């Protein structure tokens, strides 16, 4: 029960933070699109682990694939990417979160 609530809080934090970050990045992109982003202040590691554990859910499988492809950037914070790429990536992750029934359950808690 306690672990579930803690995890739900982390999922909600990711889910509700993404639109604000996208909005900020779009504003920055209008002023200076050549800036590279090296760290996003969202902890995707818990979401990645959850996606790994739920291998048979298609939405989570797609999200895991996105997170794996961009692991150095999103989880390890060792790469940097363009603002446009970051916006597209965050939009993809949020879309998959919306499509996942399991994630939706945590957001509703």
Helices and strands in order:
Layout: H1 2-31, E1 36-37, H2 45-53, H3 58-69, H4 71-74, E2 81-82, H5 83-99, H6 101-108
Antiparallel strand pairs: 1-2
Task: Provide a short characterization of the protein structure.
By secondary structure, the chain is mainly alpha-helical. 73% of the residues lie in helices and 4% in strands.
What features would you highlight for this structure?
109 residues; two-stranded antiparallel ribbon; 6 helices; globular
How would you characterize the overall build of this protein?
- The protein is mainly alpha-helical.
- The protein has helices at residues 2-31, 45-53, 58-69, 71-74, 83-99, 101-108; strands at residues 36-37, 81-82.
- Strands 1-2 form a two-stranded antiparallel ribbon.
- The radius of gyration is 14 Å and the shape is globular.
Net shape = globular
The percent range for helix content is over 70%
Distance between the termini: 11 Å
Per DSSP, what share of the residues sits in E-state strands of 2 or more residues? Answer: under 5%
Q: State the major sheet.
A: 2 strands, antiparallel
Radius of gyration: 14 Å
Tell me the structural class. Answer: mainly alpha
Q: How many β-strand runs?
A: 2
């Amino acid at each position: 029960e306690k672990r579930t609530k803690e995890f739900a809080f982390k999922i909600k934090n990711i889910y509700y933070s993404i639109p604000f970050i996208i909005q900020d990045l779009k504003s920055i992109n209008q002023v200076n699109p050549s800036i590279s982003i090296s760290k996003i202040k969202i902890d995707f590691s818990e979401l990645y682990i959850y996606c790994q554990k739920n291998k048979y859910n298609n939405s989570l499988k797609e999200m895991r694939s996105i997170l794996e492809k961009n692991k150095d950037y999103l989880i390890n914070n060792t790469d940097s990417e363009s603002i446009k790429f970051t916006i597209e990536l965050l939009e993809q992750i949020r879309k998959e979160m919306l499509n996942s029934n399991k994630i939706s359950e945590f957001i509703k808690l």
